[in-house]
Amino acid sequence: MRRLMFEGCAGWLHEAQGTTGVVLCAPLGHEAMWSHRAWRHLADDLAAAGMPVLRFDYPCTGDSAGACDAAHFLGRAASSIVAAAAQLRALTGVERIVLCGLRAGASLAVQAAEAMHSHPAWQGGVAGLVLLAPVVNGRAYLRELRALHLNWLNSVGPTETPAAAPADALDVLAFRFTADTVRELEALRLDRGTGCPAPRVLLLDPWPGATSATGALAQHYAQGGVQVEVAAFPEYSGMMQSAEFAGVPAQAWRQLVQWLARIPAALPAARWSMHGALHAASLCVAVDGVVEESVWLDARRQFGILCLPRDAAPAPVAVIFPNTGGNHHVGDGRMFVTLSRRLARLGVVSLRLDVSALGDSPCTPRTMSIPAIYSPGPRADVSAAVDWMRARGFRGIVLAGVCSGAFLSLHAALANPGVNGLVLANLVKFRWDRADDRSAGKGARSWQGWLSAARRSGNWQRVLHGEVRIGPLAAAMARHAYRHATERAAFRLTRLRGGEDLASATAYARAAMRSLNERGIRTDMLYGSEDMGLDEAQLRFGRDLEALAAFTHITVHRHGCMDHALFLAEGRQIFCDQVVKHVVATLDAMEAVGDGLPQAAKVC
């Protein structure tokens, strides 16, 4: 894989020697996060079959330039696909271009192909289209997104009502569709287009049947004389789920590679004008008022984006953001991108890190699980990243993570004396045991979370309508109660015996916090007021967290409108502001004591 940047878009070139090149057109929002692993491995598979591939982030998404709320997003995204095709042709010399899109990315691929088909610079247009679960009807797509977000809010969102999205905009998990994007999606109807801008089309349909919109689109294209192939996509649901569970479709990707391999070599190669296409790409680029450098560290096992001030000398403190769950380095809601650029404009360097098993690191596996994310390997990866940043001359390293990223940060700090500060949001576990391997993914939540869900009338209506099964919920609550009772009993028995048994998860957590405090590591712990992480902390440190009261370098912050994954804008803002506050306080303390690292100050 070769990192590149073109027209403000960050991307990856998967090189191969073939004459047919493929541009991958990603889905939008949470679907892009969830399918990232599958998308990356599809690019690898196509390149292994001899087809050069370019996958990239649309403007205002991922690592690309632009603010998340920029206007005219869909038009800019379609134009960026055309630019990506030009880039691929210029860099590899391919003779034919195929656009392959997933969900809304498939719809954008059609729009880009239409633009290429009608533009004189693209004589011949594209050689084919691959449309995977395409969004055929924009209104139906928006209804699906609204239902998804509402279901999430009713299930695990905080009781405190979040701020509404701006007028006519739509929040979907951690991502916002602006009002103009919503209007453009409402007008989208692929099946009412005048024709198909490609001679060959492959459609994969997750929901085949008489009412399938994908099937209707295939019929529409076939009536226009296009060579159309339609197949089922049963692996779609396994791919389109939270990234720590999401799979890589083996059968579908093989089918796609085979279909592309059958594109006839005799098809006339398009002769295109490539004005403005880049023939080389720097690993260090200016973007949004900062400088970002693509870096490989830890013997090139890990990938990251180093975000630096554009003009000023960097501060002596740097921040590392480990992955959250199975997500790649941009973070939900693009949080780590916007936060790292905010820090750089304040003069602070940060690293958006992909540990070796995740994201765009060179050798990521095709499967992932929660136990793998919490395993010793990723913890060691974060510690290695600390050493790498230290070697670049930074005197202070702050680790800032969410959920599993908080866990990795905690354990890197316990293992590595090079860590000087922690910002931990919704830390769920202080230690990961075999019992956690068995219970991972079983929908754990706090007592406050259960009570909050029970107070919502909509959830009881879902139970009455059969949409929610009460049995699994009761079983989960029983497991929760049993775990609390047994762990409290074990800890009390240990204390009665006069021991400090580190085999007890509670004793381990207290020893860990004591160690951080004794080393002067300033630690900010952020929790949603109903978060299961707070429930865990109360189990380890007491209902009022009284066991932490004597630790002067550790501060706990509770927030009513902070959901667990920071999908809500309020939660992301709280985290980002706390990271900035933490870093500024660290720099102020360093300045106060002169050379050397400061003793941490308690800042609320």
Automatic annotation (TrEMBL):
GO terms for molecular function: hydrolase activity. InterPro entries: AB_hydrolase_fold, Hydrolase_4. Keywords: Hydrolase, Plasmid. Pfam families: Hydrolase_4 (PF12146). It comes from the Bacteria. SUPFAM superfamilies: alpha/beta-Hydrolases (SSF53474). Residues 37-159 form the Serine aminopeptidase S33 domain. This is Putative hydrolase. It comes from Cupriavidus taiwanensis.
